[in-house]
Amino acid sequence: MGEQNIVIAGAGIGGLTAALSLHAKGIEATVIESARTIAPLGVGINVQSEAVAVLTELGLGDRLAATGVATAEYIYCDRHGNRILTESRGRAAGNAAPQYSIHRGELQLLLLDAVRERLGADAVRTGIQLTDLRQDGQSVRITTLDRNSGGHETEMADLLIGADGLHSAVRARLHPDRMRLHWSGLRMWRGMAEADSFLTGQSMVIVNGGPTRLVAYPISSRTAPGRSLVNWVALVTVSEPGWLDDDAGFNRAASADDALPHVADFALGWLDVPGLVAASTDILEYPMVDRDPLPWWGRGRVTLLGDAAHPMYPVGALGGTQAILDASVLADELAVGDDPADALMRYENRRREPTSTIVLANRQYDLQERTGADAVRIIDDYQKTIATASRP
C-alpha cells in the first residue's frame, strides 16, 4: 500500500488524522482542502480518552497537553447550580489517557503542522474543491476546481477518502438522496471568553435550564493563573424535530444580545453565565443537526470518514473523537496489504455500526434530556451505550 496514490478530501480533524495514521503505517497520502487558507476557526471541542490515546501513539501527546485542558469531571446541574450528578472523566475515571477540551482550530493546526512536518509541505493542497468523481475497478478519477486559479483539473487516485465534513462533496456523489439534514429543533449559540476559573479548573458543566440548556468548559491552558478561556454553548428549543434541505439560513454570526435573553436567569454561583456570554465576541448561531445513518458508506475504492459519514448531535461531545477513531481503523485495515477495496470494506464494517449507534443514541438522549425527568437514569443509560459503541 505504500506505493498507492491515496487522496483524502478534507483537511479537518478526521482527514489530517487519517494522513498521519496512514503515514505511521508507511502509507503516504495527499490531502485536498477546498478552503484557500486553513485558519484556527471554530470554538471548543472535546477529545475523549480513546481518541487521545490514538493521537498520543502518533506522537502528539505533549502538543495536546501544552494547549488543551485535561477535563477531569462533568458536573450536571440546574440553572441555580444545584448538582444532579458528578461524573469523573479522563484519567480521573481510570482511563489510561486523559480527555482534553481544546479549541477546535488549535487542534486542527496542531494536526496540520504534524502532517506537513512528516509528509512534506505539499502534502496538504488548499483551495482545491472536489467537483466530481468516477471510478472503475482499478482507480478513481477525481475532478477538482482550483479556487486559486479558477482552473479545473483531473487526476487519478488509487483510493479516495471523503473526510470533507457535514456538507461532504464525496457523500453527495455517493448518496445524493441522503443529504437532508435532520434538525433537532434546537438552535445553538456558541462562543468563548476569558473568565475566572470555576470549580476544579478542569470541570465541564452541563446545565438543564428548561427550554435552554448550557454547556461550558475551559479549553486552554495558556491563560494567567486563576483564569480560563471558557467555551460555552446555549441550546435553545425553538421547534419540534424536523428536516432541513440545507442549513444556510441558520448558520450566521451572532451577538451576545441574541443569546443573553436565554441565559439571563442562570445563577450558578461559581460561574457568571450572563457575564461570560456578554464578554464573548465572535459568537456563532446555527441549528443542531445530524443525518440519518447510512446503510453503507462507500463502494469500491471510495469511502467516507468522520462527519461526512456520520454527522451527529454534539450532545455527547463525540464527533471529533469518532473521526479520529475512524482514521486509526482505516489505517489499520489499509496496512494489511491486500486488496484496497476489501480493506475499505473491512474499515466500514468495523466503524459503521458503532457510529450509527451513537448518532441515534445522541438523538434519544437529547429528547430525554429536554424533559429533565429522571436525569440520573437517562445519563447513566446513555453513557453505557456510548461506552460500548466507542470501544476502538
TrEMBL record:
Origin: domain of life: Bacteria
Keyword Lipoprotein listed: no
Protein keywords: Monooxygenase, Oxidoreductase
Protein name in the entry: Flavin-dependent oxidoreductase
PANTHER family registered for this protein in UniProt: 5-METHYLPHENAZINE-1-CARBOXYLATE 1-MONOOXYGENASE, MONOOXYGENASE
InterPro entries in the record: FAD-bd (IPR002938), FAD-dep_Monooxygenase_BioMet (IPR050493), FAD/NAD-bd_sf (IPR036188)
Limits of the FAD-binding domain: 5-175, 297-353
Gene Ontology MF terms: FAD binding; monooxygenase activity
Transmembrane segments: none
NCBIfam families documented for this protein: PRK07538.1 (NF005720)
Protein species of origin: Nocardia arthritidis
